[in-house]
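User: When convenient, might I ask for sequence and structure tokens for a protein?

AI:
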Amino acid sequence: MEVLKDFDNADTVSINTLALEEMLLEEREKEMKNLHAMNKKVCYLHTSLLYYRNPSSKKGAVCYDAWRMLVKRVGGTPNTWRDLGCLLGLSPPDLDYIMHTVREDPVDTVLKVFMQDDKATLDKIVDSLIKLQRYDILTALEEPFDNLSQAFNINDSGYHSVTDGKKEVISYTKNIANTLPPALCEKFILREKDPNKPNQLMRPPAKTDEKEVEHDGPTLFLTFVEDGLLTADNIKTYIETWTDFPGVKVITLTDKREEVYQNPEKFIREYFEKADFVVPIITSGYLQEIKSHSSSVPNTSDNLDSKYVNFIYNLIINHYIHASGCMNKKVRSVLPKNVNVDVLRSVTLYPDLMPWTFETNFDQQFKAFLKQKIEEL
């Protein structure tokens, strides 16, 4: 057998061992070649596709799987998110801000900051991981990214594309709400620094006729704390896929951050009245928050939905007792998946929050509920 490489203590190594070593080296070389070629598969996919959510479609499942694997693997070791963010072009001050101020997952935040760039394609993430020599992460991403490249084909994707040389970059940025803190919104900063932009005041968008909003479709106002965030996102995803009720509108304070900052109490009161249904997400954190509320200890959370949960709960109480005469016509509480027994036991102390449905039944039950309401009109 021809031996291609020199080995230490060759006299004591059997032929079979040498052959095995050669096989392992060949396999490793092949694996490395495949990992380095991964960037070519996803070079036309914008990072925003990781946030495409549609639980009833294969594409939605593929996008979520790729996002979940990337966030979990990069977040599995300390400071890898920071190294990745640096290679993706985030500045040290931005990375410090994410570390010390932002409460959300740092890997997820880095991806959201990065994808503000129209050229933020997935191959740049692959190249960054290669530079970091994180082949363990690349190996874990190989199958999800391959599925992603197969799910989105340039010819039949149906998604917004922008020309980038000879490539068509498939993007989902126009369909994603910007939930980043203002300090991390690069596009706003770039507009301010653009020398070609004429000097003019930033005017607020024209107000929509309230009557049109009211008759456009039912409005759901979600209220929750940190441990109810996933359930809130799932509810929004369910409603986005409804074809028989396309006019349903979902309100959260985080999604309306800029409007809330102008006058939080006024905004919340107005939308509480406009909403057809207020939907508290009952978790242990939610019950603890309304139980431990004290006017002398203000909530300083950056999460607006958590910060004003007590204010909204007080509006629920007043509506329940005074406006509706103890008849619950507005509040529809939802219990998340895997709710614990303590929550079920504790919520019985709050008659105004009695659970209406579980998250697992929300999609089917709420559509049936809306259908009945429409038939009664």
Q: What stands out?
A: Residues 155-165, 188-215 have pLDDT under 50 and may be disordered. Residues 37-175 form a domain with the Death Domain, Fas fold (CATH 1.10.533.10). The chain has two domains: 37-175, 210-376. DSSP finds 18 helices and seven strands in the chain.
